[in-house]
Amino acid sequence: MQQNEKGSKGYLFGIVLVAVLGGLLFGYDTAVISGAEKGLQAFFKGADGFVYTDYIHGFTSSSALIGCIIGSALSGLFATSFGRKRSLIFAGVCFFLSAWGSMSPETGILAKGEPTMTLLVVFNLYRVLGGIGVGMASAICPMYIGEVAPANIRGMLVSWNQFAIIFGQLVVYFVNLVILGSHANPIYDAVSGVITNFTEAQWTIETGWRYMFGSEMVPAGLFTLLICFVPETPRYLAMTGQDEKALHVLSRINGYSKAVDILENIKNTVAEKKERLFAYGFMCIFVGVMLSVFQQTVGINAVLYYAPRIFADMGMDNPMMQTVIMGIVNITFTLVAVFTVEKLGRKPLLITGSLGMALGALGVAVTFGNESLSIVTMLSIMVYSACFMFSWGPICWVYISELFPNTIRGAATAIAVAFQWIFNFIVSSTFVPLFNMHITPGDDFGHWFTYGLYGLICIIAAIFVWKLVPETKGKSLEDMSRLWRERNKK
């Protein structure tokens, strides 16, 4: 039988395209709250049986992140026990059920349209279910892409996953804008705690937020269907003794001769022994975890989740449109990372992005609330967001997909991504209370303190990357075993 010696880039890009749909759903699910949260807040503000406070709203807006923590923590067990492919199918089902349930949390049992504490709990449980899907997809999609991609283009292909995340956010910004249409969004006065245009925003409060959450059923269903047609990763197949299947997938991607060499290299690292989590030293896990922690504590998701609220507080006439513009900027600068990560390397992009984010965050801290400097505030937010998009956004996922040796990748990735979602929840759930914090009535203390804190963390992140993070450009996944063993001996 004649063997394929060239491999097929079309086949590789096809299966990667399906995998990055998981990233699109990740972005869609986490950003859908940006358009829905004001209507949702006003809906539950109308409850008679309990008081819907800022802290409860912060939790409700971020409750999906609890599921993300659970899903990412389970991702290693699922990916190792059931494979990367079947785990992604499970994630897709979670996405779909969550979208349906968040749209109609009454589920045919509770009274429709009555904001009760029971309904709030049910709504949050559906959001947690979607978060489980996001958490699993966030860990396993980059892992899947990293395990099928050749070393020389792995960084670029994994970066496409981040592009898909940001594209998913941009899509949902547009979808939310279309759903809102000519309807009014409720205006919440943080000082008095009162909705000031409840009547004009009645459609948004009763129905609009439901359509926003329900719109996710379309991409969720498509992802769940398509993922059934991609192969399992060759590294998982080799680790479970399915060498012929692994060789078949590797041959279709790389050509037969190269596939034989890659499979032999995989088998050598897999066959070493059953590795303990810290077999390659504490720093291997610490660096991966801290990359995840810094990706969240630089504060970007506080902007992505609450963008319309922030732009409204800045006095912008159409905050939803400003959010869409920010989404376009985010897409553009994510492409910078996609096309430069293999040329410039991972570390230079992370360090440059950290310093640019610090500049943007501090610019917001200094100018927010000053109407004469509103353009500077707007540009500072755009700089802050754009610098994240070519650095911490995609590059953190590239590192997580390639930093850990084969024999501990499932468990180590799960831990790193779980920490990412823990800190995502902390940042997102505390943003509204911090942002609205006052020393004296009506002052802007919370505004400058919050962004000043994020700016300081960005500077610390740049120092961390410079001192402790290894450059992985051009290294095979099997090279990481040798890199960390050598570091561990020092």
What does this structure look like?
This protein is an all-alpha fold and about 500 residues long. The protein has 20 helices and 2 strands. The chain has helices spanning about 10-45, 55-60, 65-80, 85-105, 115-150, 155-180, 200-215, 215-225, 235-240, 245-255, 255-270, 280-295, 300-315, 320-345, 345-365, 375-390, 390-400, 410-435, 445-470, 480-490, and strands at about 190, 195. The protein has a two-stranded antiparallel sheet. Strand 1 (about 190) and strand 2 form a beta hairpin. The longest helix has about 35 residues, at about 10-45.
TL;DR of this structure?
The chain is mostly helical and 490 residues long. It is 75% helix and 1% strand. The chain has 20 helices and two strands.
What is the topology, as strand order, of the major beta sheet? 1-2
Bin the strand percentage: under 5%
Number of strands: 2
Through-space gap between termini: 49 Å
Unreliable stretches covering 5 or more consecutive residues = none
Query: Kindly state the mean pLDDT as a whole number?
Result: 83
Main beta-sheet strand count, sense and barrel state: 2 strands, antiparallel
**Tally of individual helices:** 20
Order of helices and strands: HHHHHHEEHHHHHHHHHHHHHH
* Silhouette: globular
Helix content: over 70%
Spatial extent as radius of gyration: 23 Å
Class inferred from helices and paired strands = mainly alpha
